[in-house]
Automatic annotation (TrEMBL):
Pathway: Nucleotide-sugar biosynthesis; UDP-alpha-D-glucuronate biosynthesis; UDP-alpha-D-glucuronate from UDP-alpha-D-glucose: step 1/1. This is UDP-glucose 6-dehydrogenase. NAD(+) binds at residues 11-16, 36, 41, 89-93, 130-131, 165, 276-279, 346. One of its GO terms (cellular component) is nucleus. Coiled coil: none annotated. Its EC number is 1.1.1.22. It is an enzyme of class 1 (oxidoreductase). Keywords: NAD, Oxidoreductase. GO terms for molecular function: NAD binding; UDP-glucose 6-dehydrogenase activity. The active site is at 276 (nucleophile). It comes from Phaedon cochleariae. NCBIfam families: NDP-sugDHase (TIGR03026). Belongs to the UDP-glucose/GDP-mannose dehydrogenase family.
Length: 465
């Protein structure tokens, strides 16, 4: 395989956009085109307001866009020109049919593979960047082969993405490892080498690991399952702490200082959100069930169940503390994104908590520094969340700043760990709240002693106050 000079990426989302921007930054001699079916998304990538908020992304895009980085809806041209094509399309959980609610829906991956097969006029390396079930590369290869034109050959690689939202640019620039899986043949090894030559521009060779295709696909699901498992483990212990008087932060510190365990991903919270953890574990559970590995499936399912329990436990705690009724009360939710430094709300715990409080009759005010009002209403009125969108529209107001959102409220619920929430003037906020004034810190980011000295009633995760 000759040197790669032209890359195309199908899917201009949270992964395709940042990943290809960093490739363009680090490989100035390579032309990178990110192509998407959505005209609106591509127009946003070509505008001053990018479709996703990600620290550092604007600067990288501004440096490369129009130089060697292009965002386009001309998918045919992008495929024709490229020697290497990333498939970075969405792989959501199926909502209908066999495996509904658990299996990954591969219709977009299949669509992308068919587009490549129908368009390509010369050899292509097709790289699966989307998170997929084990053996998905085989399906892609089958589609490509069944539609192969004379003289065109394909190599399919697996190159899962490990970036986390909110830190995507840093994660891409300083990746712990890059994982590439490919066919164990001379053609397969050449394709792996071609992709390595791209990452070689900035990732040390020892951090680029190569495996067989199925190990690579499974490693991505495994990494997310392990990370989510740590959160569910500490969250399960947060319930024990609340019942006994232990403090989950102290427990996490004591446990995490064991170098075999490590301190990361032990932050007890209102529950994990985001587009990946739940979807990928459900996918793993489904795969295990299909392989008749029922005990293994049940083991990983517990990680999800514990997360559901945590979200529901926290919501119940709020209602109980407010004299067992929030009907007619103003409650301010600070943070709607699933974590700080992103505007992404997919599977955000805030959706669950807001919905519970709405169903209990509360009047909900929401403020998030990066989530648009339309997105909040879209999430809360989605048919999978509520059967009464009118109730949501009647009982939810979105605010543009934290102070006005809190004014006149009976309680504040911190759902996202945005830095600005730690620096608010809580004295001022307290003066303008209904009394007794409550704060429920679902992220353990506030100074609870200080809040209590102001007069707040404070409740948090994993600690009795
Ligand atoms: P996304 O929904 O933000 O973006 C996917 C994009 O693909 C959409 O814009 C959609 O229009 C486009 N698309 C669908 N079919 C297409 C086609 N045939 N041709 C061109 N474009 C097409 O999704 P995302 O968050 O970027 O995730 C993409 C994949 O990466 C998923 O498999 C996900 O599990 C995985 N992943 C996501 C993250 C994350 O943090 N979001 C991290 C690691 C891995
Ligand atoms: C995750 C993986 O980290 C990343 O490697 C993968 O590529 C995509 O999925 P992401 O979902 O973007 O990334 O963010 P992450 O930082 O993992 O947080 C996920 C959720 O877990 C968030 O809701 C976060 O607040 C929560 N979390 C994280 C905790 O509750 N406690 C922790 O200790 C860490």
């Amino acid at each position: 395989m000759a040197k790669i000079t032209n890359i195309c990426c199908l899917g201009a989302g949270y992964v395709g956009g940042p990943t290809c921007s960093v490739i363009a930054l680090k490989c100035p001699e390579v032309k990178v085109t990110v192509a998407d079916l959505s005209k609106e998304r591509i127009a946003q990538w070509n505008s001053d307001k990018l479709p996703i908020y990600e620290p550092g992304l604007d600067k990288v895009v501004k440096t490369c866009r129009g130089r060697n980085l292009f965002f386009s809806t001309d998918i045919t041209k992008a495929i024709l020109e490229a020697e290497l094509i990333f498939i970075s399309v969405n792989t959501p959980t199926k909502i209908v049919g066999n495996g509904k609610g658990r299996a990954a829906d591969l219709k977009y991956v299949e669509g992308a593979a068919r587009l490549i097969a129908n368009t390509a006029q010369n050899d292509k390396i097709v790289v699966e960047k989307s998170t997929v079930p084990v053996k998905a590369a085989e399906s892609i290869a089958n589609i490509l082969k069944a539609n192969q034109k004379p003289g065109v050959s394909y190599q399919v690689l697996s190159n899962p993405e490990f970036l986390a939202e909110g830190t995507a640019i840093d994660d891409l620039l300083n990746a712990d490892r890059v994982l590439i899986g490919g066919e164990e043949s001379s053609e397969g090894r050449k394709a792996i080498e071609a992709l390595c030559s791209i990452y070689d521009h900035w990732i040390p060779r020892e951090n680029i690991i190569t495996t067989n295709t199925w190990s690579s696909e499974l490693s991505k699901l495994a990494a997310n399952a392990f990370l989510a498992q740590r959160i569910s483990s500490i969250n399960s212990l947060s319930a024990v702490c609340e019942a006994t008087g232990a403090d989950v932060s102290e427990v996490a510190r004591a446990v995490g200082l064991d170098s075999r365990i490590g301190s990361k991903f032990l932050q007890a919270s209102v529950g994990f959100g985001g587009s990946c953890f739940q979807k990928d574990i459900l996918n793993l559970v489904y795969i295990c069930e299909c392989l008749n590995l029922l005990e293994v499936a049940a083991y990983w399912q517990q990680v999800i169940d514990m997360n559901e329990y945590q979200k529901s436990r926290f919501s119940i705690k709020i209602v109980e503390a407010l004299f067992n009724t929030v009907s007619g009360k103003n409650i301010c939710i600070l943070g709607f994104a699933f974590k700080k430094n992103t505007g992404d709300t997919r599977e955000s715990p805030s959706i669950f908590i807001a919905n519970t409080l709405i169903q209990e009759g509360g009047s909900i005010r929401i403020y998030d520094p990066k989530v648009e009002e339309d997105q909040i209403f879209e999430d809360l009125t989605h048919p999978s969340i509520t059967h009464s969108p009118e109730l949501v529209r009647k009982n939810v107001t979105v605010y543009q700043d934290a102070y006005s959102a809190c004014e006149g409220c009976h309680a504040i619920v911190v759902c996202t760990e945005w830095d600005e929430f730690t620096n608010l003037d809580y004295d001022q906020i307290y003066q303008k709240m209904m009394k007794p004034a409550y704060i429920f810190d679902g992220r353990k980011i506030l100074n609870h002693q200080q809040l209590m000295s102001i007069g707040f009633h404070v409740q948090t995760i994993g600690k009795r106050i």
